[in-house]
């Protein structure tokens, strides 16, 4: 019999995933998340992502579908940070499309998650999707108005817009009218 990595993981944990109680599965996922966090801090990003993926595997859609109440909340408290931590790894690895996908998974469950909006905005900005990035940052700012990183990213987008306008003005001789005003709103 050939064991996959996930099968080996289950044997090491002591029980197959299907034989675990909800608490045991959530606990096993949380341990994987913590292992991933340690690897992330050491900048071992690929291995950190593997740990986050294994944690998410414990909390698959089939399992989540069965949960409600406090168990669902407990599982989401592990699962969503794993997706967000995966996004952080992917941004550092310049794999922006994948980072956007991880953030969007969280936003389906929690549309006002400021961290998911921020990281998706960051990935979109890196891809040159400045309008979509600005939209994410502005929504994130509504839910975390004191977050300096969000404000910094909005300022960078405004500077980017002004630089593009200046370059277009040089190229086209000012036929576009006055420079754009910052699109960010006062707090």
From TrEMBL:
TPR repeats lie at residues 114-147. Keywords: Repeat, TPR repeat. The keyword Repeat applies. InterPro entries: AIP/AIPL1/TTC9 (IPR039663), TPR-like_helical_dom_sf (IPR011990), TPR_2 (IPR013105), TPR_rpt (IPR019734). SUPFAM superfamilies: TPR-like. The keyword Repeat applies. It holds the Pfam family TPR_2. PANTHER family: ARYL HYDROCARBON RECEPTOR INTERACTING PROTEIN RELATED, TPR_REGION DOMAIN-CONTAINING PROTEIN. This is Uncharacterized protein.
